[in-house]
Amino acid sequence: MAYEDLGWTAGLPEVYHKVIGFREGNLWGLIDIKNKKVSNARYTTLQPFQEKLLIASLPIKAQAGQVRYGLINNKGETELSFSYPSLMHHQSKLIASVLRI
Q1: Domains in the chain: how many in total?
Q2: Which end of the chain has fewer CB atoms < 10 Å from its terminal CB, N or C?
């Protein structure tokens, strides 16, 4: 398969726990080392974190330009819900922001 880009939204195009990101248009998905799609291109950002986990963001359909962050594993399964305005890592820690209403 041919993709517009291989790698991660930030960083080098390295395989991470047998997967790598691919970009179609403005969205990212996961493929495995055998070029099989693990997840469709639906994430606005995608970057490795730790322990087979990746930080990803999904667009909010009702709010153009807004995203929510969560964690997925290398099988494309959600590990932490997409309900955070930001998620970032510092060393082995995950830093999340929350919304106050």
Answers
A1: 1
A2: C
Task: Provide the whole-model pTM.
Answer: 0.89
**What radius of gyration do the chain's Cα atoms show?**
13
Q: Give me the domain span that covers residue 35.
A: 5-96
Measure CA 18 to chain center. 15
**Integer Cα distance of 60 and 14 in angstroms:** 28
User: Would you list the DSSP string of the chain?
Assistant: ---SEEE-SSS----BTTEEEEEETTEEEEEETTS-EEEEEEESEEEE-STTEEEEEEE-TTSTT-EEEEEEETTS-EEEEEEES-EEEETTEEEE-----
